[in-house]
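For reproducibility, we list the full input for the S-adenosylmethionine complex.
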Amino acid sequence: MTSVAAMTREWDATTYDSLPLPHAQWGRRTLDRLAPRGDERVLDLGCGTGRDSEALLGLLPHGRVVAVDGSLRMLERLRERLAGRLDRVEVVHADITGPLPVTGTVDAVTSVATFHWLPDHAALFRGVARVLRPGGRLVAECGGRGNIAGVSTAVDEVLGPQPAVWNFAGVQETERRLREAGFTDVEVALAPDPARLEPGSQLLSYLAVVVLGGQLERLPAEEHEAFVRAVAGRLPEPVVDYVRLTISATRGPGGTRT
Ligand SMILES: C[S@@+](CC[C@H](N)C(=O)[O-])C[C@H]1O[C@@H](n2cnc3c(N)ncnc32)[C@H](O)[C@@H]1O
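The corresponding predicted structure, in tokenized form, follows.
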């Protein structure tokens, strides 16, 4: 088993897939923007349980997917989902805050709901540029500036000042980081996309499994339930106030600037 550094953690993959995830829609929109030809090798960064890797396989009848994630439980679920089709999938367990674990180059890179978990986007984009062939595209989305502000306020009220868990970047800094990493045709946008959940157990599970895992791993297990209930109780409505950062960029012809 690969040793994966401290920037990763385990996710409850079964509960994750049982929830009404807006991620499904974000994934469809991201792959619509990617629109591959069908014979490419595409890297899915933070592939999770493989929903978008599976859709990619459908869009790539003559291509391959490199599916990378830092959670073994997420990857176990991906392997179940893609059973019988794994001959066209390279499944990699790795921390993507480090050098991207890709042999050779890929034709495109995609990612859904993952980049905001990574503290250094400049390093991330340089790493993507290193594995992406010149002319290849990065098409991704993640939480951006202002994402889940209401949930964050509730977390701060409950826990007090804490080290940052999320990295919600803005448009201009993301454009600059992409250009500095050697990307051209850079398009970045921010848009609100709130998700309404059922009050009660669905909201509590959603917060615990999808949103608050970073805080929960810092708390003793016996405090988890009370913490999630306290955050949920401070939300004016059972709504997670998402703001999404969408990214499209093309790897320029030159080498990467480091
Ligand atoms: C919200 S989930 C999104 C999963 C999937 N893309 C989706 O849309 O359902 C975020 C994923 O990013 C992965 N992740 C977060 N930080 C990571 C890191 N440093 N290295 C590798 N994977 C990471 C998590 O393990 C998790 O599967």
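The mean pLDDT is 95. The beta strands are 41-45, 64-69, 89-93, 106-112, 132-143, 183-192, 195-196, 239-240, 243-251. Both points were considered when choosing residues for closer inspection.
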